[in-house]
Each structure stands twice: as C-alpha cells, then as structure tokens.
C-alpha cells in the first residue's frame, strides 16, 4: 500500500456550498404520512431466512421488527399499520436489501419498549435500539465497547452541493440540538465536543456550548475526513478509521433526530430533507421515514417525465433512483430532480491522460492510472498500486474529466468488488 500524505497541493475548482442566511430560510413543508410506508433494512436479504413477522401482522411505531426468528433486532418501525409485503430487493451495486411494506393507519400507536429502556436501561441499550432505525447512521462509535470517545465532532456542513438540510436545522432547531448534544455528552463523556459549521452559522452553533470550528464553504470541505483535518489541524491516516482514532462523527441532522429519544424517550419518526426541483429551487420538507420518494414529489407538486432523473443526495455524490418507490430514510439528506435536458451524458471512451483528475484529488491519488486498473477489473492492483481504498469519494475527478468518464462510479464499483473478493477469499481460507 502506498502511504500518500492526505493533502493535495494542486489546484481545485472553487465550488461554493450554498450558505443559508436567517432571512432566506423559507418555511418548512410538513408532508402528510404516506398510505403505505416502505422500511428498508440495508443488510442481508431474506433468502433462506424465516421471518418472525408476516403479511397481515400489526406493527406499532417504535416496535422492533425481527426479520429472522431468534435473531437480532435489525429494524425499528417508524409507522403504525399492518404488514402488506415482505421481500428482498437488489439495490445500488447489487446490494441486497430487506424491504417491508406497511399499510399505514391514520393514528400512531406507540410501542412502549424503548420508553422503558430510556427510563431503566443503559446508554448502550438505548443507542443499540436507535441504531436499528431505518437508515440511521452508525452509532457504534458512541458505544462503550468501541472504547472511549475522545472527540465528538458534530457537523453543521452538508456533504454535497445544493443540499442545505444541516444548515437549515442548525438555524431552526438550535434548542433541540443543544439538548441532544448535552445528552450525548452525559452518555459518552468525550474530552472535547466540536461543532464544524460554515461562517454564516457560527452564532447559532455557539448557543450549543460546543467548541466551534469554522469550515470554508467550498466543496468538498463538508467531507468528514476533511472536517476532522481542519478541526484538529491533523489528518487521521487513511488506513485508520475515525472510530479507531477515538473520534465519533455525527451530522446536526442525526443529533436532532436522536434528541426526542435521548431526552424524552420518544422514537424519532421524521427526517428533514432538501428537495431540489428542476429549476434548482430548494425546498426543505419534513417527511415520515418510510415515505416513498414519489409521495414526497407529489406532495410538493414536482412532476417527473420520461428521461428525467431523480437523485438521492446531491449532484456530486448522489445516487440515481431506479424507481420512485424507494423511501426516505434517516440518511436521506436530499432529493434532486433533474430535467432530461439538463443531464450531461457520460462516455465510455478511454482516459485522455490530461491529469485534471490528479490535480483536483484531495487524497492525491493517481486517478489517471487508477481508472485503467478499474476499467480492466484489476481491483487488487487498484488497491495496491493506486490507493483505491484511500479515495474519499468526493466526485471531483468526474466533475473535471473532459472525456466525461464516470470515474466516481468506477471507484464505487471497484471498492464494492474488492470487498466482495476479500469476503470470498476469507470464506474459503
């Protein structure tokens, strides 16, 4: 493995993040609950399993749904209703997900298990329960078994361009954020709590009592590793996870989502997303987790036609949807709708060796050589020679590529395929 320094001295395009001012926040759109919710468990599929829930079973909000009899609790319901469908489906990069469709009743019926844990259980039990919510970011770095949390970093930056959910929540839910941070501080007792925010959000962040790290509002400075480097004035080596370095990293959105659970024992059920329509206008909407994207767009009167594109996330690192029935989860930061006339085509041509991708890469990866290994499916060489695993997946290489090669997607596929190879070798060792 080549040990490259985690700094890039080359020139990088100045892509500014949108910065929200207090006067330009706009109103939050509260969306109605869907008639049918879809809960996705991004883990092993149901093939060969014996589900302990079945069609027709009643489900309460906050109830643990066991996908296999006697197994762990991989999913917590965010709606009340009756199970209409249980299936396995294939998603991005061929990953298999477990999908549970629930016909939603108009009135929520709360399951009391989590409230009891909140009153009597340990922080580990609470966080383990909440981590099973659909799409909830990993909370394992906060658990005692992960070792002491030396530094808790909370990001008020949004990772992708056009997305402003974290900024919006920081300005409109400051009290809830401060409460959530205080509760996390009591539970994990970190040495330091740092809030990373753009310049326009400093006064809001100061109300939380955390240390403030100001992030220059240019892409990709919202990337977790770049935020850590700026906040600590030292990079975590790319062959070491943030958790291994004693750092827990959460977004403002995650802390605010967790706040009612940590403070009052109420299961989180909503997610605020930035919806960017075809004319690039942004709307902040609060949707029930499990709401299909199609229902979100219908509620906001956004129409899509043949050839249009709907993206989960932003324009640099977002993921195109194959069907608008995919639901909003806790990790859904934004929904981007692109008119077919605005979509730039990609190319299957070969690399021109112009070097633009190398100049913009924050991790100093030789992308022009890496893409040749990836095109030829030489994933082990891509890791050993060109530091594939060091890529932070910012998408700048694809953005500047004059040949329009989808480098970002080659990299994502290469990482997936290499992980599959390693898993197969371990299984046959």
Question: Layout of SSEs?
Answer:
Layout: E1 29-30, E2 36-41, E3 58-59, E4 64-65, E5 75-76, E6 81-90, E7 96-104, H1 113-120, H2 123-130, E8 151-155, H3 165-172, H4 174-188, E9 192-197, H5 202-206, E10 211-214, H6 224-232, E11 247-251, H7 252-264, E12 270-276, E13 282-288, H8 293-299, E14 309-312, E15 319-320, E16 334-338, H9 356-360, H10 367-375, H11 379-386, H12 396-400, H13 407-427
Parallel strand pairs: 1-13, 8-9, 8-11, 9-10, 12-16
Antiparallel strand pairs: 2-7, 3-6, 4-5, 6-7, 12-13, 14-15, 14-16
Helix pairs in contact: 4-7, 10-11, 10-13, 11-13
What do you see in this structure?
It is globular and about 60 Å long. It has 13 helices and 16 strands. Strands 1-13-12-16-14-15 form a six-stranded mixed beta sheet, with helices on both faces. Strands 2-7-6-3 form a four-stranded antiparallel beta sheet, with no helix packed on it. The protein has helices at residues 113-120, 123-130, 165-172, 174-188, 202-206, 224-232, 252-264, 293-299, 356-360, 367-375, 379-386, 396-400, 407-427, and strands at residues 29-30, 36-41, 58-59, 64-65, 75-76, 81-90, 96-104, 151-155, 192-197, 211-214, 247-251, 270-276, 282-288, 309-312, 319-320, 334-338. The mean pLDDT is 89. Helix 4 packs across helix 7. The chain starts with 28 loop residues before the first strand and ends with a helix. 28% of the residues lie in helices and 18% in strands. The longest helix is centred in the C-terminal third of the chain and has 21 residues, at 407-427. The chain has 429 residues and is of the alpha/beta class.
